Amino acid sequence: KGSTPERGIPFNAASSLTRVYAVASGKGGVGKSSVTVNLACALAAKGLRVGIVDADIYGFSVPALMGITQAPTRVDEMILPPVAHDVKVISIGMFVTGNQPVAWRGPMLHRALEQFLTDVYFGDLDALFLDLPPGTGDVAISVAQLLPKAEILVVTTPQVAAADVAERAGAIAVQTGQKVAGVIENMSFLTLPDGTTMELFGSGGGEVLAKRLSQTVNSSVPLLGAIPLDVALREGGDIGAPIVLAHPKSPAAVALLAIADKL
Ligand code: ADP
């Protein structure tokens, strides 16, 4: 059964002031989830009301990155999302017991996402982030249907070859009529102890992707920023303390905070 219009999805309404960002990537491991939680925490730290929907069904990692171990609570028909670092978080991982693999087909994913968006009580939000699974799957299409006003942020590495797969993730927007808000390049370089920088994964991928997507979607897609490799980012993720809060002066945090300012 679908959601009734009265209940609806508040973030869907044309009058809703909530900015909705769907964070996408071509492949896994490029830092999509790390970017999502840090941008969310950066906006929350500025006083905005922020939520995250972790829709990365196969690799849900948002609860761990946010340091959340508690389950959502239920009040009548409503699901109350746990809150960490002033961000309300709901994850598909909170509904899976143990380490069971999730083997859902498209319609089940769609229903799960729809339930998240209708039954989870986020209250009024200024910004809602969706952490999409990597690639161009059913979830991205469901998000487009359920939240047509969601804007897409594409995370990629500097490897130009990786831009091809990332381009497909962004190009879905043409089919769905969504806006691509920008490209974020992650793992752009590593600063060595002697102060020199090393481009471990090559360079130019973010710029190439932004240019190509601008052509594909036929409107300007900005490169919002380049985030360096930073041990503090990985460590913060491992202990559930996002770097923008735990080490705001570290190189990756500075880059992430500058990107958050552009949203
Ligand atoms: P994805 O969501 O794309 O699969 P994650 O955000 O889970 O990627 O990141 C994958 C791994 O890489 C994590 O261990 C994360 O801490 C690490 N990582 C991501 N970005 C950086 C970075 N800029 N510097 C250091 N480690 C990073």
From TrEMBL:
Keywords recorded for this protein, A-Z: ATP-binding, Hydrolase, Iron, Iron-sulfur, Metal-binding, Nucleotide-binding
Top-level taxon: Bacteria
Residues noted as binding ATP in the record, renumbered to the chain: G26, K27, G28, G29, V30, G31, K32, S33
Chain ranges passing through the membrane: none
Example GO molecular function: ATP binding
Protein family per UniProt: Belongs to the Mrp/NBP35 ATP-binding proteins family.
Known partners and oligomeric status: Homodimer.
Summary of the function given for this chain in its UniProt record: Binds and transfers iron-sulfur (Fe-S) clusters to target apoproteins. Can hydrolyze ATP.
Protein name: Iron-sulfur cluster carrier protein
Parent-protein residues present: 96 to 358 of 375
